[in-house]
Amino acid sequence: MRRTVLAPLALAAVLLGVQPATAAPASAGPGNGTHAEVGTGTGWDPAPSAPFDFGAGLRCDFPVHGEPVVDRVVQHVLDTYPDGSVKRVLYKGDLVIRVTNTGTGAFYDADASGSALVEYRTDGSQFWAAHGPVLVGVGEGKGNLPRGLYVVDGVYTMSIGADGYKAVNLVRGTTDDLCARIG
């Protein structure tokens, strides 16, 4: 597992298109794999990832389940809007998500320990400046990648439209098709 300077993504759930556990700040606790920074007054708070499930045809040709097996992601809010809602956040920490083909039991432990600066826009869209591996789910016709689950790794940006369309723009990097790995 690699450690990066900026931030990995408990926001895998956002990228997969499910409700993230980071929608509200969570308390550190057993199993959250908290960092030493948490609770020291540094402004870093736990940002746990939620498990997810997709039926056959939604991301892969078969049903999939994802569950964090290592989740030490923390977030640092940099800016808020006048109403107090989050505008810009840094994410970092170790994250490994077990992605399972629930039809066969085949699984792959995906390292999603990348880092990101995420801007949440008032229209519901998002902009990500990322480094390192992040788990990204794309629905049919909802991205510049084909429908699937991917580990995107490298240096890249990603725009997520208010309609959920994901445009991944690799500066330098790779995409790893997890549906092919566990299919």
UniProtKB/TrEMBL annotation:
It comes from the Bacteria. Keywords: Signal. Residues 1-23 form the signal peptide. This is Secreted protein. It comes from Streptomyces spiralis.
